[in-house]
Amino acid sequence: MFYAVSSRPLPVSAAGKRCVLPAMAAIVILANISTRAAADEPGSCRPHSEILSHLARSYGELPKGLGLTDAGDLIEVLSANDGSTWSIIVTTPDRMSCLVAAGEAWRDLKGTAADDANPLRR
């Protein structure tokens, strides 16, 4: 039922109810989809354990490398074992992590392959 400013119910016909219910269902579905997508977008911040758990559960991503910034933040690169997806997160000293980048087709570079692939070393 819908209420006007005076708190009196507005009459809604049976045809009106049939139109409102599918529209409400569509809004709920779209909101759920956009919420899920927002959790995986760069800039999303959550406690470190939640981010790691989400990336492992949803994408099979595990930490592949890490480093510390001058500011004391932890940078982590995670990827799926098959390289299908990857993510980069930054974790502050208070253990809040933010997704800063994500993508597909990750390749690990090791030894001389990493040096050969680096355009700055050519």
Protein model, in words:
With 122 residues, this protein is α+β, with helices and mostly antiparallel strands. Helix content is 36%, strand content 31%. The protein has helices spanning 14-39, 48-59, 112-117, and strands at 2-3, 9-10, 45-47, 61-68, 74-80, 85-91, 96-104. The strands form 2 sheets. A 5-stranded antiparallel beta sheet has the order 3-7-6-5-4, with helices on one face. A two-stranded antiparallel sheet has the order 1-2. Strand 1 (2-3) and strand 2 form a beta hairpin. The longest helix is centred in the first third of the chain and has 26 residues, at 14-39. The radius of gyration is 23 Å and the shape is globular. Mean pLDDT is 73; it is low at 1-10, 16-21 and 23-38.
Summarize the structure.
With 122 residues, the chain is an alpha+beta fold. The protein is built from three helices and seven strands, in the order E-E-H-E-H-E-E-E-E-H.
What are the main properties of this structure?
alpha+beta; two-stranded antiparallel ribbon; 3 helices; 5-stranded antiparallel β-sheet; 2 domains; single chain; 122 residues
Strand element count = 7
Class of secondary structure makeup:
alpha+beta
Query: Low-confidence parts, pLDDT < 50 over ≥5 residues?
Result: 1-10, 16-21, 23-38
Helix count, per DSSP?
3
* Distance separating the two termini: 70 Å
Report the principal-axis shape: globular
User: Mean pLDDT score, rounded?
Assistant: 73
Give the SSE order as H and E letters: EEHEHEEEEH
Proportion of residues in β-strands? 25-35%
| Cα radius of gyration in angstroms | 23 Å
Question: Largest sheet at a glance?
Answer: 5 strands, antiparallel
How many domain units?
Answer: 2
Widest beta sheet: strand line-up: 3-7-6-5-4
Helicity, as a percent range: 25-40%
